[in-house]
Amino acid sequence: MKKLIYSLFIIFLSFTVSCNKKYVPRQTITISLEKFKLDSTGIRAIEVLNDTSIMYAGSIGDIGILTNLGEEILKRTIKTDSVIPHFRALASTNKAHFILNVGNPALLYKLENDSITIVYKEMNEKVFYDSMQFFDELNGIAMGDPTEDCLSIILTHDGGNTWQKIPCNNLPKIQEGEAAFAASNTNIAIVGSNAWIATGGIKSRVFHTPDMGKTWEVFNTPIIQGKNTTGIYSVAFFYENQGIICGGDYTDKFGNYANKALTFDGGKTWKVVSENLPPKYVSCVQYIPNTQGNEVVAVSTNGIFFSNNKGKNWQKVSNESFYAIRFINENEAWLSGNEVIAKMYVE
After folding, report:
1. Residue 31 to residue 88: CA distance in whole angstroms
2. H/E element holding 97?
3. Mean pLDDT of the chain
4. Which domains are assigned to the chain?
5. Distance CA 197, CA 182 (A)
């Protein structure tokens, strides 16, 4: 009996140690790319569907699903009346895909079983939607530039069938010149019921909701701001407390300024890291899965960059130009850019 108890104790101890084992970050990574050319379109919105396929939405009303063998499972071009939508926001549930036009009119399309319907429309000369994500199968959120004195934020609670815009009375007021950048569909980061929204321009801040859009607070950031082209271009969170914001100035991609910052208190405070060091402009930043928030990748038209210490320090791993990146696992990712989608393999 004692021998049995001892054996069970050893098994339990081994299991506990295994579960609590601290991840040792890779010192560096080597990447290889397999590119798939897409003519006459810029791809800023991509969504990983499974281990082998990616969905994309482009600048000429084009949407598609591409496999890592280069096979196009789906390829459609959308046109509504005389409007050729410019897509920069894309999100999916298990039942349907949602694609959002960036400009006026704002047209939010639902693709389900090869049928496309418009589930939200907004007419306003100031309308400009930047990003969209789902919390779960029923609850989703999209954000855009202000048409009044608050950000444009629309919500769905029925799986995307209907969407409602949050009244400005229920949102923090924006400041003069504050908006957002539709650079990579990563203005929104979601963890559980939390969402963080990044803005830029004359003022660059982070908006936070802990309850899927019911209540909101807003936090200042030290990211470069003061011009229409400066501010946060991308936000990512590893868990409720740890997050990263990146951006810069699109018109001065190699300038020296504060364009990367970290938080470890849920976005309340941010600290600039690696100031005046590459990457000096970032359009998309993402945590690498299964690395306990240690490994981060940033992409831009300046190249691909890797950090193994939560984003504090960076090394360039490629000169290739991309707008967006999404990871499948710690060794595979998809990227998108001007007339290209690429599968990235990490070694």
Report:
1. 26
2. strand 97-101
3. 94
4. 25-346 (2.130.10.10)
5. 12
